[in-house]
Amino acid sequence: xxxxxxxxxxxxxxxxxxxxxxxxxxxxxxxxxxxxxxxxxxxxxxxxxxxxxxxxxxxxxxxxxxxxxxxxxxxxxxxxxxxxxxxxxxxxxxxxxxxxxxxxxxxxxxxxxxxxxxxxxxxxxxxxxxxxxxxxxxxxxxxxxxxxxxxxxxxxxxxxxxxxxxxxxxxxxxxxxxxxxxxxxxxxxxxxxxxxxxx
DNA sequence: GTCGAGATTGACT
DNA sequence: GTCAATCTCGACT
Length: 199
What we know:
Mean pLDDT: 96
Strand content: 25-35%
Largest sheet: 8 strands, antiparallel
Number of strands: 8
Structural class: mainly beta
Radius of gyration: 16 Å
Low-confidence stretches: none
C-alpha cells in the first residue's frame, strides 16, 4: 500500500525556516501524521492560515505579547503550538526564527490513513465533514495539548513529505472579525476546489 | 476571587 | 440567522 506508515518521511527542520507566508503556502500537499496506541491517522494538509507575530492584530503574539500558552511561538520554527478554543484544540506550526512569534494554523486536512479510527473518534455522515475544520481535524486525529511544545520533526506527531499542489487559492482568514484591519489580510491558503476545505 | 473573551462547532429558532 | 458548550488565563475588584 502506498499509504503504509513506512513511506512517511518527516520534513527536515530546514523546511520550517522559510518565510511564514511561503511556509503556509508550501505546507499544502504535505501530510500531517499522528501515531497513537489506537493506531495511525494521517491527512493531507489542504488549508492553512498564517499569523505574523508582532504586526498582526489577529495573532496571539501581536505587539510581542507573551502569555503562558504562547511562549512556544517565540521558540524556533517547527515547534507544535496547540491552543484550546472553546471545546476544541487547534494545531499550529511555529514559524519565524527564534524570538519571532510567527505561526501557521492548520485549518483542514484530507483523510488519508486511519479513516476508520477517525470516524470512531468523530462520527459523521459525510466523509467530507470529517476533518474539514481546525477543531474537527484535531479531534479526528486525536491531537491534544499533550503535543504542545514538541516538534513536527519526529513521531508521534509530525509532518511528512507529500506531493506538490498545483492550484492554490488565497483569501481572508476566518473567524477573526475583532481584529481591525488585520481581518482582511490575505493570509489564508487552500487547495482550490478541494472538498475538505472548511466552509 | 470573579469576570469575560476567544484563530470553533453543532444544534436549534 | 442565534446560541451554548467548556476551559485557560489575563485583567480587575
